[in-house]
Amino acid sequence: MGNEILKLRNIHKSFPGVKALQGVDFTLREGEIHALMGENGAGKSTLIKVLTGVYSKDEGTISMADKDNISIKSPQDAQNVGISTVYQEITLCPNLSVAENMYIGRNNNIMQNWKKMNEGADAILQSLDIPAKATQQLASCSIAVQQMVAIARAVDMKCRVLILDEPTSSLDEQEVEKLFKLMRDLK
């Protein structure tokens, strides 16, 4: 496979009375797709939250590409180093358009130019084969398409690591297949 993008070494995280993570090691290379599986309470969500800056690790190191022992203290820090997360609960704004959801909160002033924003969003949607239009209200899209819009947003933000939190939990069989195809195409 490709070059190492992400390395976690000896990650520990405890809460009062609970050792949630103990000595976790994980390596991700370019083009790889991994699934974290385990019972409730196994630490999957805790690991994601440590990796994305929601929780601070108690010990261990996180390295990203050629940067060793990086500090991720917030979701913004994670995004700045190229880690994006699409959560199980859609965190987009259903009352806004698809394009607005793709660009909201960014510092690139694209939302001041509606034509450019819609053209950019349509280009990304088409390149990823997502069945939505930039000007369409997000609420009119299926849950699967909303999730794909969130993925398109992350991809457009130049993420190097994309974390999907239980991406298939609210999808039917056809929607799961579309999501898996999108993931394979992104590799």
What does this structure look like?
- By secondary structure, the chain is α+β, with helices and mostly antiparallel strands.
- Helix content is 34%, strand content 20%.
- The chain has six helices and five strands.
- The protein has helices at residues 44-51, 75-81, 98-103, 114-127, 143-156, 173-186, and strands spanning 4-15, 18-29, 59-64, 83-86, 161-164.
- The chain has a three-stranded antiparallel sheet with strand order 2-1-3, covered by helices on one side. It has a two-stranded parallel ribbon with strand order 4-5.
- β1 and β2 form a beta hairpin.
- The longest helix is centred in the middle third of the chain and has 14 residues, at 114-127.
Could you give the topology of this structure?
Layout: E1 4-15, E2 18-29, H1 44-51, E3 59-64, H2 75-81, E4 83-86, H3 98-103, H4 114-127, H5 143-156, E5 161-164, H6 173-186
Parallel strand pairs: 4-5
Antiparallel strand pairs: 1-2, 1-3
Provide a concise account of the structure shown.
The protein is 34% helix and 20% strand.
